[in-house]
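Changelog note: in this version the structure field was regenerated for every chain. One regenerated record is shown below for reference.
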Amino acid sequence: MLQRSYPENNFENDYIYYETHDENFAGELIDYEMVLSKSYFELNLQNEKIEVIINPTEEEYSKLKEILPILTNNSGKLIIKD
């Protein structure tokens, strides 16, 4: 799961949080690279790599390509392969 948190006041910053079924793979995304293709989604962290096999419809893939840049707010590297 990827989630963007928005600040509640002017003293906070928004951040991106990720979590998996393994609680050792959860936390704030700071230095990362995401790779999206029609067959997989990959999240590369400093010392870890999480890969998820996906099979989206064309509509779902189009939506993912639209939403991921908004979610990440250009805070890391996002590679979209078509």
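Spot check on this record: The chain has a mean pLDDT of 85. Residues 2-80 form one domain.
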